[in-house]
Specification:
Blueprint (H helix, E strand, L loop, with lengths): L18 E5 L8 H14 L5 E8 L5 H16 L3 E5 L3 H9 L5 E2 L24
Parallel strand pairs: 1-2, 2-3, 3-4
Helix pairs in contact: 1-2
Length: 130
């Protein structure tokens, strides 16, 4: 038995990660609510190794409360078998997280071992490898 292939591209269900929007200003006591929301998003996804995107663009000026919250969110995600990815972090927040020794995956940036797109290596004319 044979059948005709449908015209066009096949329908693919895109897997977009859930988004947790964080808004500020933050205080040190506002940690349990976002952690519970993150846990619910990871549990709702139903798959191990799920990633939740944390939109941090509305946090305002970064401070230790933001570092504390993001560290606890990352710990909660790892305990649930998943991870978080930051969306729209300010340069000041990235610098503060780096100063605290915390590494986060961010949207729109290449992985650490990959060169940015558009970068090409050049060869020197006197290079002995030629």
């Amino acid at each position: 038995m044979s059948y005709a292939h449908p015209a066009g591209l096949p329908v693919v269900d895109a897997m977009t990660p859930p988004v947790l929007v964080l808004s500020g200003p933050l205080t040190h006591s506002e940690v349990s609510g976002p952690c519970d929301a993150l846990r619910a998003l990871l549990d709702h996804g139903g798959r191990d190794g799920g990633v939740v995107v944390c939109d941090v663009g509305g946090l305002g000026p970064p401070g230790l409360a933001a570092v504390n919250l993001l560290a606890r969110l990352q710990l909660t995600a790892r305990r649930c078998g998943g991870g978080i990815r930051l969306r729209d972090p300010s340069p000041a927040l990235c610098a503060l997280l780096d100063l605290a020794g915390l590494r986060f995956e961010t949207e729109g940036q290449p992985e650490q071992r990959e060169p940015p797109l558009g970068v090409q290596e050049t060869v020197e004319p006197g290079d002995p490898a030629l």
